[in-house]
Amino acid sequence: MRIPYISILAASLATAGVSAAFSIPRFPFVDPSSNKHNQRVMTTNDLGPQIPMPPKKPSDQNAGGNGDLTISDILPSQRQINIFAGLTRDISSLTSRLESQLPSSNTTLLAPLNSAMSNLPRKPWEDRPGDTSGVSAESSEDKAAKNLRRFVLEHVVPVSPWEEGQKIRTLWSQENEEGKEGREIWWERRGGGDSGETERKVIMPGKVVVAGVVGRVGNGEVWSLKDVVNYE
Ligand SMILES: *[C@@H]1O[C@H](CO)[C@@H](O)[C@H](O)[C@H]1NC(C)=O
User: For the chain, what percent of residues have pLDDT higher than 90?
Assistant: First the structure.
């Protein structure tokens, strides 16, 4: 059964040019071949040669920095995270932040890879387990939008550079009463040295592995993640 508000969500995501390979039919994402958003951005910014290329190995070496571009400019070029990138466009306060050149808007965007998004046990707009709000996303468009917003903003670290070990609340936690008692997140290096394992960054406390830094621009960085943050 298709509930009307799901269609509304789907429509808004579709106009945002969200690409997705979700196999779950009710999940409100659209045709993976769509690159409408890319084209729109490309017409306003000649990004061609400046687009950071995907890293050859999971480290930062590609991210040379580009002071003129914003996260908003480079997000559409990152196909491996385009499901998550599409969700960010649905949240206007975040869109403004990612476009902003103000130093106070610097952001480290933690973007789960498409593979992580496809493997989620439930959709980002569905209620979290143990949700006691008494309002169900199944019957409330507002609730579904709120759940989606929380999901996305849990992946927004409102600083950049974000130093190793620097504990910080995500944008969602900072904006919500509920989040005041919520967790701080930080990152650590694992492996490397004598461990015999490739060194990698992990987002703590959930030990979410950072696949790479896919972009470093004037207002922050985009990190791709092998899993999602604070999701049950
Ligand atoms: C914002 O990010 C830029 C680019 O990485 C950096 O040069 C600047 O120091 C940062 N500003 C703040 C306030 O963190």
Answer: 54
Mean pLDDT of all residues in 63-79: 84
Best residue among 160, 166, 217, 219 to mutate for probing ligand 1's pocket (most ligand atoms within 8 Å of CB) is 160
In words, the CATH class of domain 66-225 is mainly beta
Is the C-beta atom of 88 inside 6 A of ligand 1? no
Rounded to two decimals, the pTM is: 0.74
CB of 114 within 6 A of ligand 1: the answer is no
pLDDT, average across residues 75-90: 95
Does the pLDDT value for residue 19 go beyond 50? no
Q: Is the CB of 106 under 6 A from ligand 1?
A: yes
β-pairing verdict for 220-225 and 107-112: parallel
Whole-Å CA distances, 127 to 16, 98, 146: 23, 26, 10
Query: Using CA atoms, how far apart are residues 108 and 86, in angstroms rounded to an integer?
Result: 17
Domain boundaries, the chain: 66-225
Residue of 106, 108, 221 best suited for mutating to test ligand 1, as the one with most atoms within 8 Å of CB: 106
